[in-house]
Amino acid sequence: MSLVFVLFFSQICFETVIPVITQDYFGFGINENTMIYMAGGLEALIAFAGIAVIGKYVRETTLQIVGLSMMLIAQVWLIVVLPHFERGNTTHVIYFLGGICLSYLGMPIASVGNTALSSKVLSNETQGLGQGVRRLIAYSGLIFGPLWAGSTVEMPYVFLGVCIAMLAVNGIMLMVSYRTLRKVEDDILETSRKNNVLPDDEATPLLRSIT
């Protein structure tokens, strides 16, 4: 639940400040910013499609670690380069877009893993309530993210520092819980196979999250 808040909070923070930074430093207009958002959306769609293909070979815990690591690397990269941006410097455009690209790739991976794993760790009796609370927390991240980004966009160390700290704390929590979560995955998979619910080539996390 904590991780899903941080994922949506951090991602929407990035998306909020893209026009501000690109217009102030690089002179981008509506068309250029639209292309950035379109490229980010296309990248996310490709990531979802890739997960649907390789998901049967990768566990949800692994997906969460990979996605979280990508987002953390992207934010550490941006907190290093963003305070030193100069207006009109084309090299800095590449630096900025590289960080945004990595964030757009990591978010879908971590989100799919989190959704599928949440459905596994919740019991049948608490499935509806748990998923409802999870959705509420995700929407809270979507609300507070732009508020935080808008108020701290001129203070990149504060803006990105808080996001990095929250991602790092959740990364530590995930690593501490790693063995327990993997055991839950193994137990559910074994039970499903015994009951002939799943074939030997386990369904993808994306499909499991939908069902």
Automatic annotation (TrEMBL):
UniProt KW keywords: Membrane, Transmembrane, Transmembrane helix
InterPro entries: MFS_Domain-Containing_Protein
Subcellular location: Membrane
Keyword Flavoprotein recorded: no
Key word Transmembrane present: yes
GO cellular component: membrane
Main location: membrane
Domain of life assignment: Eukaryota
Transmembrane segments: 35-55, 62-81, 93-112, 133-151, 157-176
Bilayer disposition of the protein: Multi-pass membrane protein
PANTHER family: INNER MEMBRANE TRANSPORT PROTEIN YAJR, MAJOR FACILITATOR SUPERFAMILY (MFS) PROFILE DOMAIN-CONTAINING PROTEIN
Protein name: Major facilitator superfamily (MFS) profile domain-containing protein
Species in which this protein is naturally found: Allacma fusca
